[in-house]
Design a protein that fits this description.
Elements (H helix, E strand, L loop, with lengths): L3 H16 L10 E5 L8 E4 L5 E4 L12 H14 L7 H5 L2 H13 L4 E5 L2 H12 L4 E6 L4 H9 L7 E4 L4 H9 L7 E7 L11 H11 L7 E6 L14 H5 L5 E5 L9 E5 L1 H10 L1 H4 L6 H14 L2 H23 L11 E5 L3 H13 L2 E2 L1 E3 L10 E5 L6 H14 L1
Parallel strand pairs: 3-12, 5-6, 5-7, 7-8, 8-9
Antiparallel strand pairs: 1-2, 2-3, 4-10, 9-10, 11-14, 13-14
Length: 407
Amino acid sequence: MSTDKLDSALNLELESLSADGRTKPPERIIEKYIPPRGETGPRYRLKGSEMEFIRFNSNSYLSLSNHPSLVAAADKATLDFGVGPGAVRFIDGTFSHHIALEKRIAAFVKKPGAKIFNSAYTSNCGLALSISNKKTHWIGDQLNHNSIIRAMRITNIPSENKGIYKHNDMTDLRRCLEEVRPEIERVVVVFDGIFSMRGDFAPIHEIVDICRSYDDKFKDGVITIVDDSHGIGAYGDTGRGTSDHCNAWPDIVVGTFGKAFGVNGGFIAGSHALVESVRQKADTYIYTNPLSVADCAAALTAIDICDSDEGLSLLENLKDRTAQFRKGLENLGLESISGPHPVVPLMVRETQKTQDLVKYLFENGVLVVGLTFPVVPRGDETIRFQINACHTSTDILYVLDLLSKFQ
């Protein structure tokens, strides 16, 4: 037996993706991290190039991945317990570090309990499996992340038990709630906290108020869920995310340790009953190995830093650099989507110009993400810049100068 026939079919599918403009370029390989020097932040060396690159495409908003305390915590945990858990959680794969991290993140996002996963993606999928039944109706924002869309699909509920409201349109959210069939017992409203391609945020205070007004209409109520993966640690006065910014907390918080916290893994935080249901019913928790103790120890340290004066200082610098970059774009007459989040989209609105600008920035040592049709509609072509706390004022000025010369 061979895979020759399968390979031929797969190659045809790949050719079709390429013809549609949906294939991804070869993955660049980072070979070296170069610490900050003088007035510049860290740089990176890519395989096959002697150039030093600055990353404006990293989710590590607080720049904690190389923090000495995180590295030391991971090293100690590894020396104490080894590099892997050796089993899933319910077969003696639970270590003290897993429990400590669950308690710490629950307290950080102001919930009674939490359960950690090896990604926010698997967290969303596991949550959907845990809280859905035949009389559940799901409602989501039009621009929700792929992991939320996938989570809604794997529940296997019929299409009439799903609703999509226009992006951040509260009138349309009310429409979706009004259209829920009377026999439904449980309604779930799910949304991103920060919409990662745009940098805008969900008006959680409005969503919670609207959903509360419909709560008595259904036997199990209306449950609100935020996936705040791009908000936790990087947004709000205390870094607790979009809920912190809006001063309103939904019923369930999903998040990640892999962005602002600079480590790896995801979590679900909510009531004790919810957490136990996840432990008993979530396939993506039950049947896969948990995070390593090194990840847990590093994540615990990252949360402690976020909750300290050092963390507030990093958050303040992140806000300052974001404001500097956004103001610089404005001064250059370039279009963006307003907001204080460190995801800063540059609206280019032409495919070829977007590709040319990404190439130009790369040739000058700047890594960014370009989004073109069909990933985004024609006319919405964008370059996503992501500001990190390690970026200096000099770094921001360098990129703005490049953009001024490209025009």
